[in-house]
Amino acid sequence: MGIEKDINQYQFRNNYQKAEVNLIYTCNWIxxxxxxxxxxxxxxxxxxxILRILRGSKNPISTLQxxxxxxxKMSDTSRIVDRLVKKExxxxxxxxxxxxxxxIQISEKGLALLEHLDIRNNDIDNxxxxxxxxxxxxxxxxxxxxxxx
Length: 149
Fold this sequence. Notes:
two-stranded antiparallel ribbon; about 5% strand; mainly alpha
């Protein structure tokens, strides 16, 4: 099985195009697997990403700081945060040092949800189960190399 068979395309302009198509296809494939795992929590992958950012920050942060850390930079961070607040998974407060800003932090309910999803970490890791640890390191390094300026 390869990208050619998966998308029914057997000719590419060159190996760079083939790699780009394969990377996009694989990214979407991984996102679908992630979505299946977190669907039980009734949140999206973007909401999951923001909750993990909030948990990792330890202190309240602005939506701009969240956007800078997000995996999907095209997401409407404010709208996603508002949905998390509505679900009581995050909390908003006026920033003490700058009243024009809003600070966001994860709520106790949000922490509990992430702890529940942490049980599924092995399932998340198993998405890449066909790679050895050394291959995963190599892949990560190659992906970093693509983004070098």
